[in-house]
Fold each of these.
Amino acid sequence: MSVSLVSVLFVAAGLIALGAFICAWKRQLTAAIGALPVMFAGAGLAFAGVARFSAAASGPPLIGQEMAVLLAIVALAAVALGVGLAGRESSR
């Protein structure tokens, strides 16, 4: 069984939709912020998949993987900031 770009994009779209659903479903801010890495993982998977399967890439071939790592770092920073802000609000 081989993996194609379409299957990678379907999985990425599923991860983004799952993250959006978790953000909308959770009532607590800290629980909703926990879904941000899931959405960023979907976007990172899409970037990495396009970079992997793109035959005529105009840029360097590793730009998708670099964007995926950058999105993972941004997701971690967003969660840390959100948890810090939520913890600060609940202590008042």
Amino acid sequence: MKEYQLQKAVCKYLDLNNVLYCGSMGGNYQPHVSVRMRAKKSGYKRGFPDLFLYEPRGKFHGLAIELKVGKNRATKEQLWWRNELNEKGYVAEICTGIDETLEIINRYLEGKIKWRLKEHFLTQETKDTIKDI
């Protein structure tokens, strides 16, 4: 499964459950420089999560999800966004595959997520990556 297919499946699930969200087109490479420049000028930020749920739950303002499939890993920019959003009162996760993604979404929407990522949970590799941004 490609990330595009995963995102389509998750969006269908969110639509069926009447969840207010928006998806990013960040994973779609644009071959023309003019298109990339237009996206940047209109506010696109590198590394912004693939999906953002505008559904406050408990002390959290919303849920941001970066989708991954197979052995794909988050970029430095994606790690930065995850950490910044977690620090600002959102829940931001990097999820691999449909099962993990739906589990996080359901737990969040049911109000079962009571924590946010804290730096002491990060691996040294992630800390080093974030430091280089």
